[in-house]
Amino acid sequence: MASIYKRGKVWTANVFILHDGVRKRKTKSGFTTKSEANKWAIETENKKINNAISREDGLIVDMFNDWYKVFKEPHLETKSKTWYKTTSAVLSEHWPDKKLSEINSMMFQKLINEYGSNHVKSSVAHIKNMISAFVRYAVDEDFIFKDFTRNVKTYSIVESKDKNLKFLENDELEYLTDAVKTNDALTSHMILTAIFSGARFSEVAGLTEDDFDFNNNTITINKSWQENDREFKSTKTKSSNRVVDMPKDYMSIAKKWQFGKEHAFESITGLPPTNNAANKQLERILKNGNCKIITFHGLRHTHASYLLANDVAIQYVSERLGHSDVNITLSVYAHLLKKKRHIETNKTIKLLSNL
User: Fold this and answer.
1) Which CATH architecture has domain 164-342?
2) How far apart are CA 240 and CA 229, in angstroms?
3) Average pLDDT for residues 84-97, to the nearest whole number?
4) What is the pTM of this model?
């Protein structure tokens, strides 16, 4: 008999089956409606009646690699492929001889705890999420009966870099802006574009001359440049495709630049400068001004932090950054918003006291 229940905002279905003389529970969650969960339960019950539930087992490392090659590798960029290969190496190190059916939640939590003993939380989350995605596939395909990753928590004792180190203060931002405005290096042009747009490096490198609208003072971001693959690709998410309003002063400066044939910022190689070259230029300029050293990505944080600190609505900042959800913006800049919360609290209490 199947059991169907709601867990948070999604539905879960349980079906009990007999395997090798042992009664086991097969569970699947994530259904958006009760009817979807019920449909899956009925189909599974029918398979049970017809003795159609099969089970495939093997070394978890081999099965993970097979799943990656078929379902993931063809659709991924180089950076993402590296994370899957890292995950495969972690599985090889911890469970070289373990079959998929032998793994349970406690073993997986131990793996996460060990990995988290010398890696930052974001790295641990990458590993956990990729293994979890594979395990959900294995459950769907009836290779195993239960998702052993579901109740495992991400763990790390290694502190991430302080978010406060990732963006410039106002005086540093003003110095950097003035410095790159009068510098003719391609990397300086890219830095100035990032300062005023908040775009990612791959998005700035992916700009072409046609993306600059000097009549309406906008730039269009609808692709990214992947320097490892040396080709244009789609943006990070669908919402990353956007038209960004730019200051007239910036557009006046950009109008004087010599754009390349395929890339707005095109070096003598016919390609944009690399992320490493842009970071070196940024570091040189910041060192000359005795400023905090940040990376090119830190310009994106600087852009957002500057706007939020000056009371620009977070919904608009999120849209400008191309985030798929305002909650992403809230989570990334929570440290900054906490500082403003104190100001808003005092303002609120003062207003209410006047009633």
Assistant:
1) Orthogonal Bundle (1.10)
2) 20
3) 94
4) 0.63
